[in-house]
């Protein structure tokens, strides 16, 4: 049966309402060699980044600059989309630079095409240790597919022909010679009607420093990558350092307000022996009021049919998608996209939760390794009834992690809440949790000081993202080594957000009667009075930092704890006593500096603890004077005099004289 055009319009409209709640997640491409955290490269990059928002406005939307001397010379390039609002462009550039600083840890090359949903603007920020101006840069490439697939009932051959034709038109528009004198010259936006889609939108842009032919090559590479990897998805985008490509069945970024729609090709004529053409006989006019009544009735009928089509389409979409991975769903609270997996699919992926696939056991339940039909490996967290993580924690973790994206946070792929099962599905992080390394006599030797420092810094950056840089303000409340996962390169990922607390952006402190977390890692004001703030996480981070340095669990020091033990050795002028013997060949001054930072993080007075942003600054600087710590929480009164503190220089002098 041939599809009704009205049905197509209704389905497209329903998809538009749903898909407009989605926006491509901004991500950063990181490449090139690593630079030393103590080198001047990061200062040069940050110095250039601090001026980009103003410079790009002053230079009509495109600006490039460099700073420093080789090998720490930094080259940057910034670009705003055509038709940008100046303030929106500045906001976009500032967001992009923060994204690079947070995600490209010590990497020379980086780029991001940042998108701002509210301001309808996109921008590019790129940095490198070599000049890229005038050069076609294709690597790395970042690709974002839509979570939805084109219906199998569509005529894909016809769709591909119309899509390819649209690509050709957009490429030609973006690279045509008449734009050669414009600063933002390589830009093309196309809006078209397809035979089976009412509207398709496509946008392409290149940096203006490359040639028209290079721009065309870059865009063609984007299109080729898309068709190779994700053909059949309902939209998405490909980002490269020199160009940007996106298409969707709905308008995005406000780029199509003044773009004329290309009509669909004419439909095939009805055969002579087909259905007869309906004619309208002439007769008496029904009048103006009659027209109004007819329109009102038809509108009401269409509304009822529209609602029915939405429900029917949603049911059909869930049924079809479940045959692959799960069902695409949207939360009732804020329209956030999250993938609901079928219990049968998870059972198949984990071989019915077999013991051979079991990765770990805890009070909350078990974690199993699994493999989806597409070959992707996953970690399945299966909660048990009566576990420490109940319905509230389950929903909390799903709600938060679907909106958080950072290289130092574990990625939640989806969930399952079916029958009596509550299951979370994560990316598989192959090296298990940090406690399996740092507290294991054999594996701890794999954690050299360089590796430990990278883990410590990565955890700090993950917390900084939660506290200050994400769209949400999150207090984790249960930071400890067992909740830090390690990927194949031993990069840390903060996990287990079941007890995390969401703050308003201007909220700094809250109180609760429900204390959740692990004793020994909880700040005193939280444990004793239920006071929650970002400084609560800072305290937990300080305890974990001291554990990383000593290789000992906090609870190994019964009666006082690791923080109190470290403080006593600090006052005695012997902080090196707490350092793991495996690190004796490593830079002792740098390790003692981190002991000092750890003691500052566990101060009893929350106001005297540093923020995570300040901790990261201390990590990377050799010139900034770090304050002296006072006695941490839970120590005896005879250790609480500020005069008992020794300066770092005195300690170093004492050590060198031995």
From TrEMBL:
Domain of life: Eukaryota
Domain Protein kinase as annotated: residue spans: 353-624
Catalyzed chemical reaction(s): L-seryl-[protein] + ATP = O-phospho-L-seryl-[protein] + ADP + H(+); L-threonyl-[protein] + ATP = O-phospho-L-threonyl-[protein] + ADP + H(+)
Entry membrane topology: Single-pass membrane protein
A single GO molecular function term of this UniProt record: protein serine/threonine kinase activity
Signal sequence bounds: 1-27
Gene Ontology CC terms, in alphabetical order: plasma membrane
Domain Gnk2-homologous stretches: 23-132, 141-252
Record's keyword terms, sorted: ATP-binding, Glycoprotein, Kinase, Membrane, Nucleotide-binding, Phosphoprotein, Receptor, Repeat, Serine/threonine-protein kinase, Signal, Transferase, Transmembrane, Transmembrane helix
Location in the cell: Membrane
InterPro entries the UniProt entry points to: GNK2, GNK2_sf, Kinase-like_dom_sf, Prot_kinase_dom, Protein_kinase_ATP_BS, Ser-Thr/Tyr_kinase_cat_dom, Ser/Thr_kinase_AS
Any single Pfam family the record assigns to this protein: Stress-antifung
Membrane-spanning segments: 291-314
Residues annotated for ATP binding in this entry: 381
Biological processes annotated in GO: response to abscisic acid
Entry protein name: Cysteine-rich receptor-like protein kinase 39
Species the sequence originates in: Eutrema salsugineum
């Amino acid at each position: 049966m041939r599809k009704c055009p009205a049905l197509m319009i209704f389905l497209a409209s329903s998809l538009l309402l749903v898909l407009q709640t989605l926006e491509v997640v901004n991500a950063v491409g990181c490449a090139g060699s690593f630079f030393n955290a103590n080198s001047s490269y990061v200062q040069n990059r940050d110095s250039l980044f601090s001026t980009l928002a103003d410079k790009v406005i002053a230079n009509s939307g495109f600006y490039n600059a460099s700073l420093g001397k080789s090998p720490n010379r930094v080259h940057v390039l910034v670009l705003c989309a055509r038709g940008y609002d100046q303030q929106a462009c500045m906001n976009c550039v500032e967001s992009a630079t923060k994204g690079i600083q947070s995600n490209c840890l010590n990497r020379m090359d980086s780029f991001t095409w940042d998108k701002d949903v509210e301001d309808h603007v996109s921008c590019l920020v790129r940095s490198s240790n070599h000049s890229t101006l005038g050069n076609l840069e294709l690597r790395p490439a970042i690709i974002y597919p839509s979570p939805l697939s084109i219906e199998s009932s569509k005529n894909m051959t016809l769709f591909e022909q119309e899509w390819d034709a649209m690509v050709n038109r957009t490429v030609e528009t973006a690279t045509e010679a008449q734009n050669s004198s414009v600063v933002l010259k390589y830009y093309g936006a196309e809006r078209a009607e397809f035979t089976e889609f009412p509207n398709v939108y496509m946008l392409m842009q290149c940096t203006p420093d490359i040639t028209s032919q290079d721009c065309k090559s870059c865009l063609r590479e984007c299109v080729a990558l898309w068709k190779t990897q994700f053909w059949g998805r309902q939209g998405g985008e490909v980002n490269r350092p020199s160009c940007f490509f996106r298409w969707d069945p709905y308008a995005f970024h406000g780029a199509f307000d003044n773009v004329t729609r290309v009509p669909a090709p004419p439909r095939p004529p009805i055969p002579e022996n087909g259905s007869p053409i309906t004619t309208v006989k002439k007769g008496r006019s029904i009048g103006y009021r009659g027209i109004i009544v007819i329109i009102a009735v038809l509108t009401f009928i269409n509304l009822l049919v529209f609602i029915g089509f939405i429900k029917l389409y949603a049911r059909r979409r869930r049924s079809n998608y479940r045959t692959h991975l799960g069902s695409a769903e949207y939360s009732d609270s804020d329209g956030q996209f999250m993938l609901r997996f079928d219990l049968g699919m998870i059972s198949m992926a984990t071989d019915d939760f077999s013991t051979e696939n079991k990765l770990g056991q805890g009070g909350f339940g078990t974690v199993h390794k699994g493999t989806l039909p597409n070959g992707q490996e996953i970690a399945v967290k299966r909660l048990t009834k009566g576990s420490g993580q109940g319905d509230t924690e389950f929903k909390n973790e799903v709600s938060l992690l679907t909106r958080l994206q950072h290289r130092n946070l574990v990625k939640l792929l989806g969930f399952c809440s079916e029958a009596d099962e509550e299951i979370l599905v994560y990316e598989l992080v192959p090296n298990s949790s940090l406690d399996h390394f740092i507290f294991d006599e054999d594996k701890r030797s794999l954690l050299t000081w360089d590796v430990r420092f990278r883990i410590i810094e990565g955890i700090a950056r993950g917390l900084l993202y939660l506290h200050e840089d994400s769209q949400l303000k999150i207090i984790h409340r249960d930071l400890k080594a067992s909740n830090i996962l390690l990927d194949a390169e031993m990069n840390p990922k903060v996990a287990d957000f079941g007890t995390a607390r969401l703050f308003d952006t201007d909220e700094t402190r809250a109180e609760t009667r429900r204390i959740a977390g692990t004793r020994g890692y909880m700040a005193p004001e939280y444990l004793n009075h239920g006071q929650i703030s970002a400084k609560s996480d800072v305290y937990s981070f300080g305890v974990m930092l001291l554990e990383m340095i000593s290789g000992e669990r906090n609870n190994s020091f019964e009666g006082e704890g690791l923080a109190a033990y470290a403080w006593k050795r600090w006052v005695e002028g012997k902080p090196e006593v707490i350092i793991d013997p495996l690190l004796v060949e490593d830079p002792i001054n740098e390790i003692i500096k981190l002991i000092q930072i750890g003691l500052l993080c566990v101060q009893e007075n929350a106001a005297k603890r540093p923020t995570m942003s300040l901790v990261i600054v201390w990590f990377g600087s050799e010139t900034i004077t770090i304050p002296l710590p006072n006695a941490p929480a839970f120590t005896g009164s005879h250790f609480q005099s500020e005069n008992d503190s020794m300066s770092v220089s005195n300690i170093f002098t004492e050590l060198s004289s031995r």
